[in-house]
Amino acid sequence: MGGLKKAYELLGAKTPLELSNLYSIEDQKLMKSNNWDYANPDLITNKVKNILESINESDLTDEEKEWRQEILWFWYHHAISCAIWRYQDKEAAKLYASRALEYQSEDHPNKVTKLLHLLVNDQFEEAEEWAQTIQEEPEKGTGSELLKEYKEQGFFKK
Fold it and tell me: Would you place residue 2 in the very low, low, confident or very high pLDDT band (cuts 50, 70, 90)?
């Protein structure tokens, strides 16, 4: 378990899947309360993310690697939104979108990450095309709302 031990202890997890599930619970609490913030080092989500990024992946089992990657994708996915709507920081949004795509597995069902990546990089036509591939709700509705907001006012105030 090595470096993962700190993350397990922080969340009270015993398995990689439990770590991911408990992380998601904490993440969703912060998102719902509008307190998710990549700039706050005291948040448990940021502590877990920092621990996971400091771990040498070659020291992990395949299952640990898989759930580490999922948690890091989730963190970066939410960091994109935080950069856009909390901080109006286009460069941070671009960085976090690129990192989220790096961590997102090829067979991952989420399609909003790529849509956000295209939009923060001002690739609106490509984003519209990508949005057409989103068939499942609530992502389809989320995609439509993101395109509408971007088209009407942009994500970043000039």
Answer: low
